[in-house]
Amino acid sequence: MNKVAVITGSSGGIGSALVRTYLDDGYFVIGLDRTPCAYPVRESYVEINLSLLQFSKDISYRDDVIAKIKEHLPNHPKKFVVINNAAEQILKSVSELEWEDWDNSLSVNTVAPFFLVQGLLEELKLSHGSVINVSSIHAKLTKPRFTCYAASKAALETLTRSLALELSPLGISVNAVAPAAISTDMLMAGFKGAPDKLKALKNYHPSRCIGTPEDVSFFVKAIADQEGGFLTGAVLDFNGGLAGRLHDPE
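^ that's the sequence the OP posted. Answer follows.
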């Protein structure tokens, strides 16, 4: 247990890949999610069920969750990584959005990551740890109906830069990754029975492919593995070149 990773959204497509990647590298992994994870029982994996919405709002609940995490932490881990991967994606038009949609999006996608880092600050300081926030291409380039999601991810990127200013002098690196289309089960379900549309999506990326959850997990780990602390406050695109394409009429 000299290497520890805390991963939110651990039962989702990208979250599951992150868990596997860190377990394979000998990390003790603490997964945080509101739904059970489908992993074989392993001594090096612990699952904590939680609501990030409640975590962001309820101080007592938050303290209990942080205490549960700390119960599983060694005194002096050689490496300590916190990955804020969980996200709430609400797709509605401007006329349909309610206060609850904004509350859920910002609480889960932006506020909860802040309080998780705050709650584990001492452990991050002692280990010169790393924080990785999983943002989205929607923070900069978005589409109709993504208003809440895009705004919350843009806020997460600003949070990343702000945390880096205060925490980097303490030896903690804070960075974000902004993926584009990733072939999670949720994304692929949207193309069920429409292989031509999936092919068109792949071909629209200059890379002529879309990313996999494993691709994201390896990229995240490579960033967290950086030594020296000079890489901090960065938002790194992971989008197959899509952000460089100008979409003009022919």
